[in-house]
Amino acid sequence: MKRFFSLKMRASRTVDGEPQHISGAEKILQEEDTPRFTTALLDRAFHHAKGQPDFINLKLELLDETRILRLPALPVKTIPTDSPAEGLTKMTEILRSQMGIANAERIVALLPQCGNMRGAAIVDVDSLKRVEPDHRRGIRVTYMDDEASAEIGPSSAKNHFREAIVLGTKVANAPHLLGELCISDDPDYVTGYIASREIGYCRITCLKEKGSPVGGRIFLFRGNADDLQETIAFLETQPVLVSNVPGSPAQSDRWQRLQEDLSQMEENGLRRKLLVQETSAGPQACVAGKTLLMLASNNYLGLAGDTRLVEAAKIAAEKWGTGSTGSRLLTGTQREHVALEQELAHFKGTEDTILFNSGYVANLTVISTLCGRDDVIFSDELNHASIIDGCRLARSRIVVYRHNDMDDLERKLREVRPVRGLVVSDAVFSMDGDIVPLPRLLELSRQYGLFSMIDEAHATGVIGPGGHGTVAHFGLTEGPDITLGTLSKALGGEGGFVCGRRLLCDYLRNRARGFIFTTAMSPVTAAVARAALRVLQQSPELPQRLASNVKVFVDTLRERGIVTSTQSAIVPIPVGDERRAVKMAARLQQRGIFLSAIRYPTVALGQARLRASIIATHSPEELRHAAQVIAEELQPVIIQNPGSW
Ligand code: PMP
To answer: What is the pLDDT of residues 427-436, one digit of tens each?
Structure first.
């Protein structure tokens, strides 16, 4: 049988013959935890900001385990208020409307008169009289603790919030008490609370002026003299352990937690904002009424605003309507979907293709469908977030290898000796623009009997002859087992797809939850993608024009001293610091250039960059001008961060 002890510490000193309180604390602990907490409380007594004690009272008392009452912590809610008047009005309203106390205003007015924070006043809510026996001392609530105290461990600092929740929970559960009101007497602490079993622990953020020493604590009582004895006995002697006590207001208040997270992001230069585009996609953009050169889109071939695709959308909408009406396996397969799957398979040189609603969903779904707990996934350290999320969803063991380092991959394969699994990589890396060494990756995957997979989001329409992608780029006769692509970048629409063997696609149609349990893409979207494929196949010069544009841009940057390189349409321009990258992007926008500041978590912390993506329909003059402006703005930054890449 466990033995529980109450441990209490009070520290005081004598000033002008009068004892002056310095610090106090109490715990309810199992026997084995008492030594370390005794030391911690002594430490707290000796090192208190209020001064050195000359008297420390430590009391250790065995409790009857069967008498300990276990209570769940009151739920915490924060009510933001801007002024004491607003705070007190809120408190009064809650008392009246949520707790049904008619004398609400007069009770709140009593608070400043009940100002001994170590002892509370007990106020009869009907007669408004203080009914505790000793008004000078008030009622001191003791024998209570956080059930997780031992787990959290002793700390020489107080967690006021946790202690307040423990107290509030015990008081709210006392017989004949309707609740509690509290304003701290600490001049710097303007937050107070109102608590009861029904309303929980409601923090009101402003209840008094900063600097004011006025505070008070009232327990709201209703009952007769015997009831009062019962209440006081509970408060003073009933041992209570409170479970699930939150460590901070942010931890306990779901909305406040979000607010604080956003504020933190703002401070670290990581808060995102939506930029509203005011014209259709093209080499120029209009944002906030200003025309800018677009260097931030994935519209590599300029097809997103192409009239041929717009026309295809109109025709498809007239023919099919706007929605697919159901999931692919039920009513959501129109002719457009099937035709697009066949045409994509043909374009990629595979047996079959299966469509998904986005590239993100495709990655998530395919990886988690093909791999499970028994698999090992070998993943490039710079793989796209959707691959990472897919690996997580699969719950496989994940082995991350160094970026594009096939020797590292081989070393790890040799070490792990996986029985089943997958090697997965971006084909063109979305933040660096470099290409996976596909031949070696395929060789290693085959050697170890693993699935091979590449994500061609930024490769399709961009690299390889005719924009056919990575397999064509390397001139291979056989590609990876799984080739994933998106319709959302060079193809100017939206949606994702997976190409490979018929067996793979059949399997996914039967097993892939992200295919089965979602409404199919609109037939209009499918028709637009088909039109994009037609344009690409009829205009093999488009990817060539894109490549020559990239060369103009990179060459001009290099001439101006900016060190960068790419093998695709993505040109990373290193900056380093997150806030600096955001400032640079804003400055460039003022100078008519729309570039994205790419920051953590998209790239590692401290590796923020400007990411330029080139469009085939940019003119070489536009790109030369942009590169010059970027170089002018960035020169000082690059010089200050010479070693960051
Ligand atoms: N893979 C990569 C490499 C990507 O860059 C992206 C998009 N940023 C995706 C997948 C997701 O594709 P989608 O935008 O079609 O969801």
So the answer is: 999 999 999 9
Whether residue 596 sits in one domain with residue 509: no
Beta 608-613 vs 596-598: how paired, if at all? Answer: antiparallel
Query: Do the beta carbons of residue 483 and residue 473 sit within 8 Å?
Result: no
Q: Among 489, 568, 613, 618, which one carries the catalytic annotation?
A: 489
Structure tokens at 534: 């037609």
Q: Which two tokens stand for residue 540?
A: 């093999």
Nearest ligand 1 atom to alpha carbon 488: 15
One-letter amino acid identity for 501?
R
Amino acid residing at 156: S
Which of the residues 8, 412, 458, 468 is marked catalytic? 458
Contact 613 CB / ligand 1 (< 6 Å): no
- Least confident residue range of 2-16, 247-261, 297-311, 469-483: 247-261
pLDDT score, position 287: 87
What digits encode the pLDDT tens for the residues 530-541? 999 999 999 989
Task: Of 449, 496, 489, give the one whose Cα is nearest residue 615.
Answer: 489
Alpha helices in 321-405 (DSSP H): 335-348, 359-370, 385-394
248 or 295, greater pLDDT = 295
219, 177 contact by CB (below 8 A): yes
Q: Can you tell me whether residue 65 is helix, strand or coil?
A: helix
- Positive or negative CA dihedral for 504, 509, 511, 515? positive
125 and 171 assigned to the same domain: yes
Which residue among 488, 516, 538 closes a domain? 538
If one residue of 383, 386, 463, 489 were mutated to test the ligand 1 pocket, choosing by the most ligand atoms within 8 A of its CB, it would be 386
- Residue whose CA is closest, atom 12 of ligand 1? 359
91-to-79, 86, 255, 327 alpha-carbon distances in Å: 10, 9, 20, 52
Cα 578 to middle of ligand 1, angstroms = 22
| One domain for residues 205 and 317 | no
pTM of the model: 0.69
Residue 594 and residue 285 in contact, taking contact as beta carbons nearer than 8 Å: yes
Domain containing 35 equals 4-66
Whether residues 167 and 93 fall in one domain: yes
Strands 240-243, 69-72: parallel, antiparallel or unpaired by DSSP? Answer: parallel
Question: How far, rounded to the nearest angstrom, does the alpha carbon of residue 542 sit from its chain's CA centroid?
Answer: 39
Shared-domain flag, residues 285 and 339: no
Would you mind telling me the total number of residues written for the chain in this entry?
645
- Find the mean pLDDT for residues 449-469: 97
Catalytic (active site) residue 430: yes
Query: What pLDDT was estimated at residue 599?
Result: 87
Closest CA to 174 of 95, 241, 232: 232
- Mean pLDDT check: name the lowest of 136-140, 333-337, 345-349, 517-521: 136-140
Q: Are the beta carbons of 161 and 255 closer than 8 angstroms? A: no
Q: How far is the CA of 488 from the centre of ligand 1 (A)?
A: 8
| The pLDDT value given to residue 645 | 33
Total structural domains in the chain?
A: 4
In contact, 162 and 223? CB cutoff 8 Å = no
> Quick one: pLDDT at residue 187?
84
